[in-house]
Each structure stands twice: as structure tokens, then as C-alpha cells.
Amino acid sequence: MTDRRKPTVIVTRKLPDVVETRMMELFHTRLAPDDRPMDRVALAAAMATADVLVPTVTDRIDSGLIAAAGPNLRLIASFGTGVDHIDLDAARARGITVTNTPGVLTEDTADMVMALILATARRLGEGERLVRSGRWNGWGPTTMLGQRLRGKRLGIVGMGRIGQAVAVRARAFGLSIHYHNRKPVHPEIEAELEATFWESLDQMLARMDVVSINCPHTPATYHLLNARRLKLLRPHAILVNTSRGEVVDEAALTRILQTEAIAGAGLDVYEHEPAVNPKLLELENVVLLPHMGSATTEGRIDMGERVIVNIRSFWDGHSPPDRVLQTMF
Ligand code: 8YV
Fold it and tell me: Which CATH code for domain 8-104+296-315?
């Protein structure tokens, strides 16, 4: 679409200053008054007046909100890669384009996967808590023993951009790469990563030392790691999730960690964010982070720039570069 006037853009959360300033220059932008997630009423009001809505993962844009959107709302330019907070079918039915910000948070998220693998395998959370508690009695030859990573097998569930960036890093730590995906990646990438494709997720899970969840949350991946599959993991296995909490059955995972049926888990995301299963908080064998996988200053600015590029190209009548058609796994 081409429109000579500036679009009215409503941003739901506080973004980095440089991003907000550029948006103010380019569009009729309404910035978030404070950094609290908008409630449903405020979201509905924003969607009633905006040409473009810029939401984040903390805004649930469901079919009801989309149905009630004003006639001007033509673009939802989400600040983030995952789009499971937006009802894509409802948006499509209303002729609303949805864009996201893929690519720019790949490396930061992959770094966080490695941080969680290391933190879980080497018990960093426990060690830190021990020192802070004042109960550390000094070095001991058999205390705080973790697991060596070199020589172990990493199973990556979802071999997209982030999965591949994890694989590159993990190889430097001496992990061998295995993966499960809808289909194998390009043979050249597979050869470069010396990665083994597993068509059967069950078979892969039963043989891995470390498992990293890197697929998006879609109806097909909801509880992909359910109680039955979690039970396939070996007693020394470690599970890391930086994707979406919904991909793992959090209650089942909690039970498995309580009984020490696996060695540990590193979680950056939760099924009912920001709520965390209170039983997880009591466990030593889990590292818990507050959804900060892509939280770098540089990454947030890059994400904002992608949002701006998407809005500009859409408003200039072009297909925006990060148009979301369908998320698949
Ligand atoms: C973002 C994320 O910070 O982009 C994603 O999918 O999970 C996060 O890293 C968040 O989504 C911003 O909306």
C-alpha cells in the first residue's frame, strides 16, 4: 500500500532510546508511557486507532483483539522473532500483515544456549549460591563435580538459524552435533557442522547427553517434549530451553528434575511466563533465567531497526522483508 501521510505507529513497550527517537522522526509514533505490558483494554484501544502496532512477546494479540481492531490497522510489526503471541490466522483473515525481527538475535541467543549448557553441566548456579550463602568451606577434591562437555553429544531440536549458531559454538566445546528438524538442513551445512540428522525425535532424545530446544512454539510443537518424551532422556542428560516454555511440559519436567531422573535443566523460558512453577524454585539441579536470551543492548537496537525497516517498506507499498506467513517446524 502507498500512503503519503505518515503512519500512526503505537509501540506497546519501552524500546531503546535510539530506536524510539528514530521512530518519532519517521512516523506519527505513540511511545509507551511506561515499561509495563499493556493490559487488554489498552491494547484494544491501541489497535482501534493505530495504522501499525509494534507489540512484543508480552502482548497477547488474540483473535478477539484482532476482530475488534480498527479499520486502519494494516500492520503488526512485532519486536521479536517468535510470533506465537499473535493469532496469525486471524490477522490474515482481517488482511493485517505481520512482521517479526529474525536474524538479529540469533548470535546472542546462541551465546545464551551455551551459557546455560555450561551453567547446568558445571553447576554454576549452585556454586554461586554456595559462595553467597557464606556456607562454603573451601575446595574439596570431590565437591561441586559437574560433567565434562568435550566428547559428549548435543541434540538440537529445531535446526533453524539459532540451532545452527548453537551448533557452531558447541563444536568448539568438543560436542558432537545431532539434530531433529522437520527436514534435514542443506547437505553442505550438515557437512560443515558434521551434524547427524534424526528423523525420529524419540530415538535422538534417548541417545543424547545434552538437548537444546531451538524450535519455535507452534501448534505442532506445543508440549513436543511431553512426559513420555522427557522420560526417554538418560539419567545424566541436560535439557536447555531458550525457545518457548510451551514446547516443554513444565510440570512433567519439574517432576523429572525432582526425582533426578535427568541431571539438570537450564531454562530461560516458561510455560506460563512470567510465572515459574514454584517447585522449580526449590531445586538445585535447574538454572533459571528470566527470558533474557536475546537481551543485549546491541541486539535490542538491531531488533528496533528491523521493525523500522519493516514499517517503512510496508508503508512505501513494498512487501516488508520480514513478513511472517506461517511458522513451521
Ligand atoms: C525477545 C524472543 O526478547 O524474539 C523472541 O522470540 O523470545 C525474545 O528473545 C522477545 O520476543 C521480544 O518480543
Answer: 3.40.50.720
